[in-house]
Every structure is written in C-alpha cells, then in structure tokens.
Write a structure and sequence with these properties.
single chain, 371 residues, alpha/beta, Rossmann fold, 2 domains, 6-stranded parallel beta sheet, 5-stranded antiparallel beta sheet, 12 helices
C-alpha cells in the first residue's frame, strides 16, 4: 500500500517534540496512561522528506476521548490526524454511537462515528480499527488523496500504534528502564508488526510488504553550568524546556539566583579550584562557564580545557576572551586547544538581557547537538 516504505529500514533518530520535551517525558506520560487502563494511540513520524513540519521521530499520544500530548508537526494536519486516531480507536474498541466520548481538545465535538461518515473515504483509507497503520501526508495544495492541508512542499509518514492492557504496561516499563541501561545500548523498533525493544544495531530481514523504523533510546542530554548568576538562571530555564538535565555549580552561598533556580535538577556548592574532579572528560556533556568573573573563569577553564566534552563555552566579552587566551598561550596552551572553546559564547544576535543571552547560548548548543 505504501511502496515508499516497503522493505525500508529508516536510520535511527531521537525525539524532537515541542510539547513533550524529551523521550523519557513522552514515555512516562504514556506509562501513566496505560497504567490507568486508558486505550491509547501512539503516533510516530517514521519518515520525513523535504520541508516537513513533523520530523522523523516526532511523537504524539492520543488517549481515547481525552485530548493528546506530544506533537507530530502541528497545524491543520495534526488536527486531522488526531481525529483519525480517535476514529480508529473507536473502531478498535467497537464504539459506534454517541457514547464514544469527546474528541481531542480543540477539535470537532462530534463523535467518531459521525466524523467517519463525513470524511472522504480516500482519506481514511482503511475503515477498520487495525493497528499498526501508516498514514502518508504530502504538504502540497494540488495533491488529492494524501494532501495534508499544508503547503510547505515536504511530506511525512505517520505510523499509528495501539497500546492497551498488560502487555502495553510491560512494554512501556521496559522502555523506561532501557533509558538507564548504559551497558547495553538499545533501540526501539517501530514496524508493521508493532513496537519492540531491540539491541542497538540489530536489524531484521524485511519482506516486501513490511516496514521498519528504528530510534535510539538515549538518556536526556546533559548540561553543566558553572556559575549560578542571572544568566545561569535564565539558561537553566531555557535548557530545561529543551529537555536537558541541568546541573549548576557555584562556590558562593546564599545567592538569590541559586535559590530561585527551580529549573536545575541538581545544584552543587563546590570549590572552583577542584572543578576538574567535578567535570571529568565526558563526550556527551555540554559545559557552560558563567562564573562571577574573569579570575574564576580563568581558573576553571585551565582545568577543563584539555578534557573532552561535546561542547565547552565561556561567557564574556571579546576583550575578556582575548586577554584570557593570551595569558593561556604564554602558559603553554595551544591554539588548537583554545579553538575548542566557544568564546564569546552564543550566537551573535546582539543579546543584552540574561534571557536573550540564554537564547543565544541555547541556539548555539542546539546547533552542536543536531549537526
């Protein structure tokens, strides 16, 4: 039925969702719903081509009769696909009358049976409540059958899965446990037969009428912010919203911005002279230096610069950076080592306030994360 996905094994992706800010959050919400015995449709974008608002890995949960969480791209397309999810859930559950309950928040208040009768049969494709189910969406105004209602010229394919009962509860519990298993990297396989956990890199032979999509089960990205001032507070808020695990370090007690920082998952009072012990090499860690001033930043940077991080950035003016780097060169630090430091930190967007500076730093980190 969908030749563009027949026998295809898509590359692994990580979740990028505007509503649920990381994979763990999404599956924790799914776990809560299935444990409450809510019939649930999980929608996952398994293919995206060109300028598509829903990228591969975007997910949405649609509990029957109670709204939705996550996103598969937004707009009129998302509204239509949520309605379709409710319609298919109604078929699966054998609901045909007005007792089927409300549709998703913000969508039509008609029951699923009425929606089904009003829709173009070519758009529904398969009137049964079968899962898994693929729905292609092409974002072009002049296309008929698979037109999404958007005109951004790309396309995406969304897979629908049904989760309910003891097997679903166990599956989601296993998914959550897999996030913390650093010794055995694992992936989620979304396929024409359902969802299952597999060892990282494991691939099975597909028949011509089968399809598969794989997604790495990764822990939250982590950021360490050294310094607990105003920029640190704004950046903690920003990175928490982006799904990062935030740890803040400072050597000062009683800071109002320290106590106001409810966004960091960890706050640690430390001796800056011992930062190397707190932040050893970690290729997956993002590190931001934003301490109280030149001397402390210099002390910390000299300890960390030869460690390996995914990102190392330092707050400060171009002149501050020039003076610091000049002194470090005299003490034997190489240009190659200094070039690893993003300094002055952040994208050049003429930011002034702590919140604007936080946006510029977050944008630079996202650029490194997604490259």
């Amino acid at each position: 039925m969908f030749p563009f996905l027949r026998g295809v094994v898509c590359p692994p992706h990580t979740l990028n969702s505007a509503t649920v800010n990381n994979q763990r959050d999404f599956w924790m919400e799914v776990h809560k719903r299935v444990e409450s015995r809510d019939p649930l449709a999980v929608l996952c974008v398994v293919e995206s081509i060109g300028s598509s608002p829903g990228r591969a890995g975007f997910k949405m949960g649609v509990p029957y009769g109670s709204g939705f969480f996550g996103t598969i791209g937004g707009g009129i397309m998302e509204k239509k696909l949520v309605e379709l999810a409710h319609t298919r859930l109604a078929h699966r559950l054998g609901v045909t009358g007005s007792s089927s309950g409300a549709l998703a928040a913000g969508s039509s208040s008609r029951d699923p049976a009425e929606v089904r009768e009003a829709r173009d049969p070519a758009e529904v494709l398969d009137s049964e409540g079968s899962f898994p189910y693929l729905k292609r969406q092409v974002h072009q105004a002049d296309l008929g059958k698979d037109r999404s209602g958007m005109i951004c010229s790309g396309e995406q394919t969304v897979a629908y899965f049904f989760l309910h009962g003891e097997e679903a509860i166990q599956l989601v519990a296993d998914i959550l446990a897999a996030f913390d298993d650093r010794e055995r990297p694992q992936e989620l396989e979304f396929s024409s037969t359902g969802i299952r956990i597999v060892a990282a890199g494991e691939r099975r032979t597909l028949n011509t009428d089968e399809w598969c999509y794989y997604e790495a089960l990764r822990t939250q990205p982590r950021i360490a912010i050294v310094g607990a001032g105003h920029v640190s507070l704004a950046l903690s808020r920003q990175m928490d919203q982006l799904g990062f695990h935030v740890t803040v370090f400072d050597d000062r007690q009683g800071l109002n911005t320290w106590h106001a920082n409810t966004f960091a998952q960890e706050r640690k009072l430390v001796d800056y002279a011992e930062m190397a012990a707190h932040l050893p090499s970690d290729p997956e860690l993002y590190v931001v230096l934003a301490s109280v001033g030149y001397r402390t930043d210099d002390l910390i940077l000299r300890q960390l610069i030869r460690n390996r991080y995914n990102y190392l950035g330092m707050l400060g003016s171009a002149e501050k950076v020039r003076v610091m780097f000049e002194g470090m060169r005299k003490d034997g630090f190489t240009d190659e080592e200094l070039a690893r430091v993003h300094a002055p930190i952040g994208l050049p967007i003429h930011s002034r306030t702590p919140e604007e500076i936080a946006v510029s730093i977050a944008a630079e980190i996202i650029g490194v994360k997604n490259r």
